[in-house]
Amino acid sequence: MERRTESIPMVDHVVSWAKKFARRFGQSNELQKLDPDEISRIARDFGISVSELLTLAKCDADVQELLKQRLVQMGLSQELVLNKHPSEFGDLNRVCASCGSKKRCANDFLQHKSGHSEYCPNTSTLEALRAMDDANAEARISQAQELTRTKQECAG
Q1: What is the pLDDT of residues 41-67, one digit of tens each?
Q2: Residue 8 backbone phi and psi in degrees, to 5
Q3: Are 53 and 31 in contact (CB under 8 A)?
Q4: What is the DSSP string of 106-127?
Q5: Which residues contact 149 (CB under 8 A, 6 or more apart)?
Q6: Is the pTM of this model over 0.90?
Q7: How far, in Å, CA of 14 to CA of 139, rounded?
Q8: How confident is the model at residue 121 (pLDDT cuts 50, 70, 90)?
Q9: Rounded CA gap, 31 and 51, in Å?
């Protein structure tokens, strides 16, 4: 499968910026200290609402770790999703950052519960991404088997 070379969608830039911002200013809520018009302009520039921007800016490392664990338990790697599905990765981050079940999610991982949860708003997206990757893997296996048969026929 070829690697995606197009630019990452704006949402991913917002997530990246919010992570850097959160690390730089920590719990100081520096973004909220800006003029409301400036906050609105930043949100508009990124194509998201002010509330989404504020949520992303508050997103801490714990949320990122929870998403990473959820990806692993669903049989996906963060790198794979980021490279093959950058828009969906941005959505996953945004939804995870604004989720009201972070404590429950963290507790599930502490108790080694399955990544398939009824309460996680990202579950259906993760299942769809896994199904797409499974289908792609099956197609690659079929192509490789066909190529092997063709080589054997040519050699024999």
Answers
A1: 887 876 777 887 777 776 666 788 889
A2: -75, 140
A3: yes
A4: HHHHHTT--S--SS-TTHHHHH
A5: none
A6: no
A7: 34
A8: very high
A9: 12
